[in-house]
TrEMBL record:
Residues 28-137 form the ER membrane protein complex subunit 7 beta-sandwich domain. This is ER membrane protein complex subunit 7 beta-sandwich domain-containing protein. It comes from the Eukaryota. InterPro entries: Beta_sandwich_EMC7 (IPR019008), Carb-bd-like_fold (IPR013784), EMC7 (IPR039163). It is a single-pass membrane protein. The chain crosses the membrane at residues 129-148. Keywords: Membrane, Signal, Transmembrane, Transmembrane helix. It is found in: Membrane. It comes from Iphiclides podalirius (scarce swallowtail). Belongs to the EMC7 family.
């Protein structure tokens, strides 16, 4: 946490921490492939054999520290250095910037997950074939053809079908009120047509 005065009189500080390799992974020379970027590469640091790092000549202010590795992802940390040389580290939250979750300083950077540069190719599965709409449309009629004859042989289903057909016939039969109105209206029209025919004959 030492500070250095530059020519303009502004204090320069050192951001320190340690990077841990991925758990349960045997990596050779992972320190060589790893870099520490401050503010997107404005300041760059390197890792020692034990995983520790120190980025020098960093001015006061708020700085985003990132671990750059080609295969593994690390969570970035925001380090704030005030004019008195006090450090405060917190998680980076670009969505809720007002939310402050402090982390210990010197930094301890751990790998989150491995990068996936390529999407995994989809594999053929039997369930995808069975749940295909075209296959379902072909299989359902076959099942109906095989199941319906067996259902028809069952006496209970026969009785149910008879009841359904009887209800359908009852619903098709016209109501008595409609029959009576048709009879009366039909009789009146027939009488009117007969009287008109008699008048025409008398005139002739």
């Amino acid at each position: 946490m030492s500070s250095v005065e530059d020519e303009a009189g502004n204090s320069r500080y050192v951001i320190e921490g340690r990077v841990f390799p991925p758990e349960n992974q045997v990596l050779s020379n992972w320190q060589v492939e790893t870099r520490i970027h401050v503010n997107g590469g404005e300041y760059i640091g390197f890792i020692k054999e034990d995983g520790s790092f120190a980025v020098h000549n960093v001015p006061t202010g708020s700085h985003v520290v990132e671990v750059v590795h080609p295969d593994y992802m690390y969570e970035p940390v925001r380090v704030e250095i005030n004019s008195k040389g006090k450090y405060r580290a917190r998680r980076v939250n670009y969505i809720q910037t007002s939310q402050v979750i402090q982390v210990p300083y010197p930094l301890r950077m751990k790998a989150l997950s491995k990068f996936r540069y390529f999407q995994i190719r989809e594999q053929w599965r039997l369930t995808d074939f069975l749940f295909n709409p075209m296959v379902i449309m072909m299989i359902l009629p076959l099942l109906l053809i095989m199941v319906l004859p067996k259902m028809m042989n069952d006496p209970e289903t026969k009785e149910d079908l008879k009841q359904i057909t009887n209800l359908a016939k009852m619903s098709e039969m016209p109501e008595m009120s409609e029959v009576i109105t048709n009879l009366f209206s039909g009789g009146a029209t027939a009488k009117a047509s007969n009287s008109k025919a008699k008048q025409i004959k008398k005139r002739q």
